[in-house]
Design a protein that fits this description.
It is built from nine helices and eleven strands. It is α+β, with helices and mostly antiparallel strands and 292 residues long. Bound molecules: 2-oxoglutaric acid and fe (ii) ion. The site of 2-oxoglutaric acid has 8 residues, from β10.
């Protein structure tokens, strides 16, 4: 499959017109409601400004750069789960993971938004490799299979993300390492050798390799145009507990409820529960990929 080749070779692939205009209107309405609930502190699960990686605590900062747990029944917005469990997304994700849809595992589904009080940037990072990793640790991480994929689906035009194409397979050069060895937010992403800014059009979906070197800028809105980018991941059952820390660090206890499991994507939910059990046996619960 062509998309899979791009993802493997470049570390990312952008697919045009994935969400049609009718669907986008409905998703935007739900997104706006979820964003308002979050900004008015009526939705406690959020990414807080000033903190890049989980765990996030509602008390930490009044401002937000993400809405967490879009499929949570308390949010009462079933449209998000319908999107996540839709045949078109599940088939595409399974193709990109390289497994049959029956092996696909339910994971994260969140939304990336912009702060309203002050701008915020992420540091250059790979999602599950420490900034301080030495060359050997980095090489080991870059040659270990992921058993999963992650995506950004833009409901509005979105230029927040910066990536270094092909870096998912390359150990950092000394200059790249110098700009990414600490969790300090990237003040000027363009300084990173090889970096490009990703410009997503509303309706496009981007899949990117968790090992690609990336960072993001979250300018204050307004004046910046809004961001509502659906951000999710899927795993492959055959990974066992390989993905457990990266996924469960987001706090998915609420997903264990069998009444949640009964909804759309039930088979994928069963795989998530299997990963939970395996993670417990492998002592991977309560751990985090990165700090900062
Ligand atoms: O804002 C983005 O698109 C990237 C977010 C990110 O890098 C992360 O959540 O680890
Ligand atoms: Fe990231």
């Amino acid at each position: 499959m062509e998309y899979k080749n791009y993802l493997e070779n470049d570390g990312y692939v952008i697919i045009d017109g994935f969400i049609d205009s009718q669907e986008i209107d409905k998703l935007r309405q739900a997104a706006n409601d979820a964003i308002n609930l979050t900004r008015t502190h009526n939705w406690p699960y959020r990414r807080v400004v000033g903190k890049q990686f989980p765990p996030w605590t509602d008390e930490d900062s009044p401002d937000s750069w993400g809405v967490q747990h879009l499929m949570h029944p308390d949010l009462k917005m079933p449209i998000f789960r319908q999107f996540y469990a839709s045949d078109k997304l599940v088939e595409l994700a399974a193709n990109l993971v390289g497994c049959s849809p029956e092996y696909l595992q339910m994971e994260l589904f969140n939304m990336l938004i912009l702060p309203t009080r002050s701008s915020f940037n992420l540091s250059w990072h790979r999602d599950h490799v420490l900034h301080s990793a030495d060359e050997q640790e980095e090489r080991d991480a870059l040659t270990t299979p992921h058993y999963g994929v992650q995506f950004n689906a833009a409901l509005y035009d979105d230029s927040c993300l910066w990536i270094v194409p092909k870096s998912h397979k390359m150990v950092r050069s000394p200059a790249q390492r110098a700009l990414s060895c600490e969790t300090k937010p990237a003040d000027n992403p363009a300084e990173m050798p090889g970096a490009i800014q990703v410009h997503l059009k509303a309706g496009q979906i981007l899949f990117y390799d968790a090992n690609i070197l990336h960072c993001a800028q979250y300018p204050c809105t307004p004046p910046s145009p809004p961001r509502a980018t659906l951000h999710g991941s899927y795993g492959d059952l055959r990974g066992g507990s390989h993905r457990a820390i990266g996924v469960l660090q987001h706090g998915l206890e609420w997903m264990k409820d069998p009444s949640f499991g009964d909804g759309p994507g039930h088979e994928m939910w069963e795989k998530l529960m299997a990963m939970y059990n395996q993670a417990k046996a492998d002592d991977k619960l309560g751990k985090y990929s990165l700090n900062g």
